[in-house]
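Task card 7
Instruction: Convert sequence to structure tokens.
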Amino acid sequence: MAKKIELNEVKPVKPVELDELANEPLDPKHAVDHRVKHWKIGRIFWGLLFVLIGLLILASNSGLVSLNWFNLWRLWPLFIIMIGMSILTIQGWAGRLLAVVIVVLALGAVTYALIYNPHDIRQTSIYNISSQKLDLATNAEVNVQTGLGQLDINSTDQTAVVQAKLESNISKLTSDAILTGTTQVTNINTDVTDNWAAGNVDNRLNLNVTRALPIRLNLNIGASNINADLTLARLQSLSIKSSATKSDIKLGNIEDLTTVNLDSGASSFVIRVPSTSGVSVKLSGLTSNNLEGLVKNGDTYESSNYGLATKKIDIVGRLGLASFKLEQY
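Output:
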């Protein structure tokens, strides 16, 4: 028969404060280790990858190494693998050891790809072309198309309309000439023969144009540096079309009128003109201008002697984010 429990026999339970529970020492047998026992390999890899790339860029800027960014695309399967691995959870000492090995190998592959450049051993070739004056030619037009690199232009007393010398490990030099009426049209091209994006680019083109004929010079170039001294050339017009360029150009006043047309993106131009020439400049785009000795006349800047000058230079620029400086000598 069940024992009947009187209400006065039930002992009240003492309430336990939370602070007391927090201070209560745990029995080691029943303690639970809540520390994370797994690694996220993706977090480790991507974090160390950014650190590695930062260190390599710093070393490159210090001149210690030369980086070949083009090689990274060859590692795209590796990045897919690492994205997949980042989804996995690595547990236990064996898993952690495997994660360390994978990360070290992956970062080593990235480092090797960025530093190693098989094109470092490619040789620079020299090409020379001379476009001789054709019969009946009384003026000349020279069209130059080249990619990134260095372009130097001068004028000399020569029978050839233009002489070209290319030193390059990515391009070869070609040319052709035809007679249109009394105008000799000469085309100078640097045809790419190797992958310029692989780094270690050597591409230098030197042009000497004739002083014997009036000449129109048209440059269609990539990201290049231009140094031109045309003070003694019979320059009728100069046209430069470029994605980006840093140009230092010195003009003369052999011809009564020289026109200059600039069409470029992010660029820097320094144009030097004779102080005796009348000069007008009209620019459009986001340009920083330094127009020495010119005053504004409508949307054009002109030298004070422009109206009376017998020798004139007209400059029109359609520029992107660029700087333009005019100097008189």
